[in-house]
Specification:
The complex is a heterodimer of chains A (126) and B (321).
Chain A lengths: L1 E3 L12 E2 L2 E2 L6 E5 L5 E9 L4 H10 L4 E12 L1 H17 L3 E5 L3 H10 L6 E2 L2
Chain B lengths: L1 E8 L2 H11 L5 E6 L3 H10 L2 E9 L10 H8 L4 E7 L7 H6 L4 E5 L14 H11 L16 E5 L5 H10 L6 H24 L24 E7 L3 E8 L6 H12 L11 H9 L2 E7 L3 E9 L11 E6 L4
Parallel strand pairs in B: 1-2, 1-3, 3-4, 4-5, 9-11
Antiparallel strand pairs in B: 5-11, 6-7, 7-8, 8-10, 9-10
Helix pairs in contact in B: 6-7, 7-9, 8-9
The chains are: A alpha/beta (126), B alpha/beta (321).
């Protein structure tokens, strides 16, 4: 079951394919996927200030001890996006006591998360 | 007193390493090995020369002789200091660099050579030339001659994605290296524009005038200009704003704080500037207090995938350096 949390995709100016999907010049969407083993969230679009309302809600939705975030459809993550991810992951870890796994990271996501300390709170799946 | 450039190195091995990069520097009065420093400074003063620029090798500072810059600054209060670091050496800790007000640091990796020509054309050579001249680094100097520099005057926050798409469009090709450079460029442009749109505008109390994500029109006097160019190997870009609210000390404090994960929180200030620094091969910042800030730099295609390398910076103000 897919559940959209917030955000409206912005139509328009995609220029090129990116990893098989249209390049994401679009507002952020988070979708929750029901999974027996863990809480799974699929992110789409750029993670910046416009992701605030979606990311703020996520920790309250966590029920299981493992949470997986799929970044395979994420475009840019800027410094504001990093701040929001750190806040979200910290709450999941501290309040829900859950382990956080990340999948679908691009090279640039990995570089960025290494640089900014995101990997202190979350691990890459596999 | 005549102006001079002085270089302080650890020993004859370091002298041999830096010689190709420093030969031809106008006003270079010598490369002094540490054990000869006192004698050489005495001779310099006898010849009535005062160094306008002192180049310090990371072989002697900050870890080996932590008080070196403080001592030299007492002797030559008007000198600029440039810390040069070979790519094989670890990134020096930034706290002593901040304490001693060093505003120029160059990592001399082999890949930092700008046009793969002579060592003098490396980032080290460019930095020395600029500091010695008292000039401002411009992105055209990173790029091959006759490379087109694109210039966009930003009139609304809503133009950000369009500007980033413009930058992406000048980096052609679908191979993974180009794609990575394009994504790096897009991230850098995003951070630079966000900083100009929402970080730079501050009231007298230092409080931001606009909230992140707020739609805003840019008045002409605010003058946000984004420039970028790509010569097939190097992507260079910079953003200029009309505020001049940064200071060299604040820049370096942001870099040092964000480098230490133990000190950062999710709301840590200066993260955008830190990301810009880490994702550029070399960052330059020019501040004309109260009037203008320029933040920019260059990233090379061959280094796009490399995050482990240390990064340099070059911070100048309108009044010095």
């Amino acid at each position: 079951m897919l559940r959209r949390l917030a955000g409206i995709p912005v139509a328009g100016s995609a220029q090129r394919k990116y990893r098989g999907i249209e390049k994401m010049n679009e507002k952020f969407i988070a979708e929750r996927i029901e999974d027996g083993r863990c809480d799974c969230f699929v992110f789409r679009g750029n993670i910046d200030i416009h992701a605030e309302s979606s990311l703020k809600d996520i920790p309250d939705l966590v029920e299981k001890i493992i949470v997986r975030f799929d970044f395979s459809q994420v475009g840019r993550v800027n410094s504001m996006g990093i701040a929001l991810l750190l806040r979200c992951f910290k709450r999941i870890r501290d309040e829900r006591k859950a382990e956080i796994l990340l999948t679908g990271l691009t090279t640039i996501h990995t570089m960025l998360f290494k640089t900014t300390g995101v990997f202190l709170l979350a691990n890459v799946e596999g | 007193m005549k102006k001079a450039v002085l270089a302080v190195v650890k020993d004859h091995e370091e002298r041999a390493y830096w010689t190709p990069y420093l030969r031809g520097v106008p006003g270079l009065v010598g490369m002094i090995e540490m054990e000869c420093l006192a004698d050489q400074l005495y001779r310099l003063e006898k010849s009535r020369k005062a160094p306008s620029l002192i180049i310090i090798s990371s072989g002697v500072y900050p870890e080996t002789y932590p008080g070196l810059v403080e001592g030299l600054r007492k002797r030559y209060p008007d000198s600029e200091f440039l810390l040069v670091v070979p790519s094989s050496a670890p990134m020096p800790p930034l706290q002593p660099v901040i304490r001693d007000n060093i505003r120029h640091l160059v990592i001399n990796s082999e890949n930092s050579r700008i046009f793969d020509e002579e060592p003098e054309s490396s980032v080290v050579g460019l930095a020395i030339k600029k500091i010695a001249e008292g000039g401002i680094l411009k992105i055209g100097e990173y790029l091959k001659p006759r490379t087109r520099i694109h210039k966009v005057r930003v009139s609304s926050s809503e133009e950000k994605e369009q500007i980033i798409a413009g930058l992406e469009s000048i980096v052609p090709g679908d191979n993974p290296e180009m794609e990575l450079l394009r994504q790096k460029g897009a991230l850098l442009a995003d951070e630079m524009l966000e900083n100009a749109l929402y970080g730079a505008p501050q009231g007298k109390d230092g409080v931001s005038l606009y909230s992140k994500g707020e739609k805003r029109l840019i008045p002409l006097k605010e003058k946000i200009i984004f420039r970028y160019g790509f010569d097939g190997e190097i992507l260079a870009m910079e953003v200029e704003d009309g505020w001049g609210n940064l200071s060299p000390k604040v820049v370096l404090e942001h870099l040092a704080k964000n480098q230490d994960f133990a000190l950062i929180s999710e709301d840590s200030g200066g993260r955008g500037l830190y990301i810009i620094w880490r994702f550029l091969d070399h960052m330059h910042i020019h501040i004309n207090p109260g009037r203008q800030t320029v933040v920019g730099g260059q990233v090379k295609l061959v280094t796009a995938e490399n995050l482990a390398d240390s990064r340099g910076f070059h911070v100048t103000t309108c009044c010095a350096g």
